[in-house]
Amino acid sequence: MLWTLIRKEMLANVTSLRFVLTLLLVMVAFIISGFVFVGRHKQEIEDFSDTFNRNLSGLEEASNNLSRVPNQTQTIRRQPKITQLCCEGFEKSMPNTFRMTGFSIQNPEIVSRANFLFPRFADIDWAFIISLILSFVAFLITFDSLSAERERGTLRMVMSNSVPRDKLILGKYVSGMLTLMIPLLVGLLLNLIIVGFSGLSFTTAGQWMRILAFVGISIIYLSTFVLTGILISSRSARSASSIVVLLFAWVIIVMIIPSAGRIVAERFVKVPTRSEVERQIRDAGREIWENSSRYGERAGSWSSGDPNYGNPPARARLFNAIVDSRNRINEGYINSMAEQVSLGRNVTRFSPTVMYQCASEAIVGTGVARFRKLYNDLKRYKETLKDFVMSVDKSDPDSFHLWAEGRQHRVLLSQRPVDHNAIPRFEEIDKPVSSALRGAVWDIGALVLLNLLLFMGVNISFLRSDVK
User: Fold this and answer.
1) Which one of 25, 276, 333, 381 is least enclosed by Cβ atoms within 10 Å?
2) CB-based contact 439:216 (threshold 8 Å)
């Protein structure tokens, strides 16, 4: 009986005009997404390779003198990921480049070839299509699932044939989900074909596992809209009333709530401007310099031509204090931005769209979580580079063995050459898939729980409703 109901509902769905139009719309969206991603991804790979090669050339040149290695400015660019086609996580609007030395990390920047005169479009990735278009389609498919039959009187006829209400609801739900899966899977297949024929490919099992996990989360997310549509339809006497309520709910869930997080976060978490940060850095450095005697006798005296003049250890402590204050202020600035985003996400996390976005970014490894991980990886690399330089410096008896920033203070370290192949390189490494899933477990669990509650609500609502 159940499969008979499912086949009947499926046939009615796939032969409707709204399904045909939905299929065409989703196919076009996924095709556009594929071509946009391929062009942008190839450009990002080229820019990343150029930046990486410039870093190698700079380190090779600096290897002629060990003291130059930590002072060499490196440009670290965010590494392109092919899995970004699933969920870009608004990365094109986020900083993609850091400049750093062995002493400090400068504020992040957005470096792009894009024409700034053209406005930025929304992310046309899988998550955008699913969260915006297919969620709306889920309501279009289910808004009249029960209300239309109640209007026509067919619901009373079905129930008079001793059809259990729970099986009727289950049949409506399964048929709605299967109807949604057709445009979703067709669109995904077209997108992957475009990406594959462009020369890009998924080279590891981990990448495929992330895609499968993303598709699984997408199905759970769409399920919430199917169940919501059936729930509202079960409580509505007319289909017109049902679609109005669902449209209102869609705007609130998908558009307003996710956008409201930024308003709340900006009100309660203040982020200083870049000019304020620069002023704080200058004031802190001036205060340290004016009290240089705290770091030792003649800490502020130095002659680059005569390293024995002054007090090199005190001078090193002075400049390290200045660098530490600058790093603390910059890190506080970045942390305040991350806290603002986290607050905005947390206060709107009751929306399934926000849960879905957060879970998708965690699994694919994009967005704010990736930015924070990249920054922490840079801090670890900075310490790794320092440990390497100081370990090599120990073998030179003519060195002061003192770590301090500044080209004029290179005499504090060894002047000997070093093998450039031995110098540590920065490499961005993805989290394992298991770790990514753990990062998304709360959002996935919340979506599953929401589905269970909605399913219970649909059954209770329909059991108590009048089929006439």
Assistant:
1) 276
2) no
* The residue type at 1: M
Among residues 133, 141, 137, 132, the alpha carbon closest in space to that of 239 is found at 141
Residues of the chain with pLDDT under 50: none
Cα(390)–Cα(385) distance, integer angstroms: 9
Q: Nearest Cα to 374, choosing from 154, 100, 4?
A: 100
Contact by Cβ (8 Å): 428, 79: yes
> Do the beta carbons of residue 30 and residue 24 sit within 8 Å?
no
For residue 176, give both structure tokens. 């709605």
> Which helix (H) or strand (E) covers residue 257, if one does?
helix 257-268
**Please, what is the Cα angle at 271 between 270 and 272, to 5 degrees?**
115
Beta-strand ranges (E) seen in 122-239 are none
Distance CA 45, CA 220 (A): 33
Task: Give the pLDDT of residue 159.
Answer: 61
* CB-facing half-sphere around the CA of 90: CA atoms within 13 A: 9
Rounded to the nearest 10°, the torsion over CA 398, 424, 77, 415 is 10
Enumerate residues 6+ apart whose C-beta is below 8 A from 230: 142, 145, 146, 169, 172, 173, 176, 458
pLDDT digits 0-9 by tens, 124-146: 889 999 999 999 999 999 988 87
d(CA 150, CA 168): 13
Task: Please choose, from the candidates 254, 442, 436, 440, the residue with its C-alpha nearest in 3D space to the C-alpha of residue 359.
Answer: 440
Query: Tokens 């399934």, residue?
Result: 352
Q: What is the DSSP string of 148-175?
A: HHHHHTHHHHHHHTT--HHHHHHHHHHH
pTM value > 0.90: no
Q: Are 359 and 394 in contact (CB under 8 A)?
A: no
- Determine the pLDDT at residue 305: 52
Residue pLDDT, tens place only, 16-66: 888 999 999 999 999 999 999 998 899 999 999 999 999 999 999 999 999
